[in-house]
Amino acid sequence: MDCHAYNGRLDRILSLIAESEYSIHDLSRVQADRASPRTPRFNMPFELGLTVALKSTKLPNHAWVVCESVQRRLNKSLSDLDGTDPYIHGGTVRGVFRELCNVFVRSRRQPTVLQMSRIYRVLRADFKNILREAGADNAFNARVFKDLCISASIAANQFVTAK
């Protein structure tokens, strides 16, 4: 087993958490995949666990939130977080935007759900071109992610004004 590659990835995740002021952990997509053997992916709950541990030991100022699509499912699936109020988005894009508005209510720049929907439509329109230009076939690519961030920033500057 090549532990070096695994540790490199884990170290990168820990570093990203440490570099961020806050993190959002959406547990709604923890479900079995379609390929045999049907296996759930536990990356997001694992990353949430790392974040909670880092906050209690090394990052006391780090803020984290949990999102879910179904009310009360977090209490059942991750009872150790009992007392944590997840942001329930109902599994829709509009619901995710609504809950992001609730998470970032104190931010200087507060886009509305409608403005975020416009930005989302721009990203969807740009996505295939960004993939093609990066020579990639999915969004899980550093260059694609960077280009999507740039596109989102340009769209946000066009549609959202600071309050």
Number of strands: 3
Q: Give the helix/strand class.
A: mainly alpha
Number of domains: 2
Low-confidence stretches: none
Protein topology:
Elements: H1 3-19, E1 22-26, H2 43-57, E2 63-68, H3 73-77, E3 87-88, H4 93-103, H5 113-134, H6 142-159
Helix pairs in contact: 1-2, 5-6
Give a description of the structure.
- The chain is mainly α.
- The chain has two domains: 1-91, no CATH class; 107-163, no CATH class.
- It has helices at residues 3-19, 43-57, 73-77, 93-103, 113-134, 142-159; strands at 22-26, 63-68, 87-88.
- It has a three-stranded parallel beta sheet, with helices on both faces.
- α3 links the parallel β2 and β3 (87-88).
- α5 (113-134) packs antiparallel against α6.
- The protein is globular and about 40 Å long.
In short:
This protein has 163 residues and is mainly alpha-helical. The protein has helices at 3-19, 43-57, 73-77, 93-103, 113-134, 142-159; strands spanning 22-26, 63-68, 87-88.
